[in-house]
Amino acid sequence: MSYLVLGNLAVAVLLAISGAAKLRSPEETRDAFQALRLPGWLRRSPAPVLLPWGELALAVLLIVGAGWVLVIAAAAATLLMAAYAVVIARALTFDEPVRCHCFGAHGGDGVTRRTLLRNVLLLVTSVLGLVGAVAGVSIYSQPAAGWGWIAMAALAAVVAVLSLAGGGESPSGGVASVAPTLTIWEVSSGERVTLRKLAGRHGGIVLLSVVSGCSGCERVLAALPGWLAESPGRTVVPMRPAGHAVDDPKWESLALLHEDWGSNVTHTLVGSRTPSAIELDAAGVPVGEPAVGPAAVEELIRGRVEPEPAVEAPAAPVEEEPDDYVRRPIPDSVLIDADGEPLTLRQVASQQAQLLVTIDCLCSPARHAIASITDWQQRLPVLEVRLVPSIRPRDPAAVPAEVQSTALYDHGGFAARALGATGKVAAVLLGADGLIAGGPVTGLEAVEDFVADIEDQIRAAAAESDVPPSG
């Protein structure tokens, strides 16, 4: 019966993987307790925090334990697997699908019959391991070849495949070409619309996939109004499976709510896990990679949150408060030019005043700023207008060649923070005398106003120079 040691070893490996995954995503563990509708006292208890540590401890004992220690560990593992099987079987009776990331990104995220089969096989495996522990079988026993070892190895392999395969799917390649033609339905009007048409209406959108029975989705939906208030340039289109929990009150206050028949769009663009989101440009083409999970979705919608820079001067254009604006020395920060050569900010502005337009994403406001660089350069001929990204776009076509040729890369965004020009889009004017001449200003609208103010000043200065001296 020495082959029964494989039962405990298989359960131990899966417990170790499960515990490590839960430690990396503690919020998803608490979400699973809520999604599985476990009792309130259990959700509020330390159980969600202690569960991964308990799984890891059991994994260690099942591997290195012997005698009564191994028997107790195997019995505890069997009780745990039985509890998991009962919880999953109960979840299959719910009216709406349940999302449960039992193995983090390694495993499936939806509770299905396959999940129940996996847990039943885990229970069988743990029972066989318990039988072996009671019989005195451990890793210290002398192994013996035979059909028993083969059968136990096959069972362990099936359990591993069911536990770890098929989860965390990502969209297949080539979605950029098909995405604009995909269609979803607007809930308020019943209109069927392509992603190209929908994204074109708003100059680009963030498509947010959510479902009921998903605690992470509920947190995202609750926080969404606040995120949009902080990011007015964003248009977020929530999307749920068609006909899914239509009477759920959480949907009533959602603007631009759409339905995805058969979850076809979700599976094509972002995979099966929720909450998830992906940005589409004005043509309905995906921008960057999908964001999966509440934290990644928040980062995509809000943009990266940078620490507040230590700035002495007020963050306002010189034209608005000319008497109060204090010109500061240009900080000692380094940018990288198109040839890969480092340049200090002072070197950049040493020959000609520079309007630096900083971006930290390829969101809609940033893309609008990129497209405006050439126009701003024509309107401000006495300056050099340069794009200063802190990210390197994967798609070379995201930045036109004429803009890319003069762009200056800001590794880590250090120069932008030193200048105070942080956020999705910002701008600052550097003087050739080594001092900051205007700004910083943050936000696409503020940058456009800043350019217009500089343009007016240039025209006014030109008009004054044309006036003949008096006397």
From TrEMBL:
It is found in: Membrane. One of its GO terms (cellular component) is membrane. Keywords: Membrane, Transmembrane, Transmembrane helix. InterPro entries: Methylamine_util_MauE (IPR009908), Thioredoxin-like_sf (IPR036249). GO terms for biological process: methylamine metabolic process. Its main location: membrane. The chain crosses the membrane at residues 56-89, 120-140, 146-165. SUPFAM superfamilies: Thioredoxin-like. Residues 7-131 form the Methylamine utilisation protein MauE domain. It is a multi-pass membrane protein. Pfam families: MauE (PF07291). The keyword Cytoplasm does not apply. This is Methylamine utilisation protein MauE domain-containing protein. It comes from Tessaracoccus lapidicaptus.
